[in-house]
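Support request, please re-run this one:
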Amino acid sequence: MIRRMATTNPIPRFPAGFLWGVSTSAHQIEGAADAREPSVWDAFTAEPGRVRDGSTAAVACDHVHRHREDVALLAGLGVDAYRFSVSWPRVRTPGGLDFYDRLVDDLCAAGVRPVPTLFHWDLPAGLDWLERSTAERFAEYVGEVAGRLGDRVTKWITLNEPAEHTLLGHALGVHAPGRELLFDALPAAHHQLLAHGLAVRALRASGAGDIGIANSHGPTWPASPDRADVEAAGFYDLLLNRLFADPLLLGRYPEGVDELLPGDAGADLEVIAEPLDWYGVNYYAPTRVGAPRGTETDFGGVRMPAGLPFSVREIEGYPVTDFGWPVVPGALTELLTDFRARYGDRLPPVVITENGCSYEGLDDQDRIAYLDGHVRALHRALEAGVDVRGYFVWSLLDNFEWAEGYTRRFGLVHVDFETLRRTPKASYGWFREVLRAQRG
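Re-run finished. Output below.
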């Protein structure tokens, strides 16, 4: 039994209407792989050595068969909204949308607002983000989903983290589809951004509104004031932050990447920059970057080849999660205030679409400290003038953590992957009390 958390220093009050939620993704929790088409992740995990513990997501949390139990956990938690993703491979299967019909109905009945993400990395096998046609196919799929769910869904997310999907899946090969193209991976980034713009148009054509994207961002800290380190950090920031924000918010790519993109990229910017109702930010940690060291390095389990024009360095002086990521709540405030300064009135209202950490154990006091610090940092950004409208914890459930398999636990709810039993952790109780206090 999880004890109720005593609040000795209450979380500051957020504005009325602020959206509190939790997030998951289809491939990481759904299971029922035999009732959908295969995705690039199924092919990837079938290759020996790709996943740390040799596991797959064939069963995962078996959410497809246990979603009512999970909706009850959401209702018990007291969140306003649940961010989940729709599996494109499942929708391509006859009757595949029926599951999402049931899920959305059950969420609405429980008083939880459904917030679907339309692509969270599980690209159907046979499609390829290096091909422009995939963006067009995506828009067709989005129109189909909106036509089925749009009478009940009132908030939409097009893509999740095209930066990571490009970097880890197409440039460095540690995620599906497992390519190691380095800078030749950038067409995959452009085609995902094009898919986003086409999806916004498809959603609006169906009558949908309140549309955003979930982009991952974090401050980039130079390893030192030396010019070489500052320039390297600036280039890293361009690749991981500005490459995915500038086209959406400013209608242009940052200078220096144009020659690496497809020749027709400029003509697509009007579509990519379709106005957004809000801008989603996934935040986990800052990154410390210096000049290249000329040798291959390992960063958080990701092999960084020697030929890159930067090197990722350790951030010292902060606690780290079980994943080895530094815990720096203040960097969330820094990120949001910097974005407000950089983009000004072009930045729509912001929603934190993911924030969380990996820790073991049911009495997860480290997770509580992490979330407490980041919610307070978010409030400081509000006080500094950033228009923040919502906050989603990653994640509701322990799940299949991509190339880490089942070795990392991000959930507010513990999942026994042998029995699939769900057990709320101390952090679940803490977040429940935070939400009660916000409404009190």
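DSSP finds 13 helices and 15 strands in the chain. The two ends are 25 Å apart (CA to CA).
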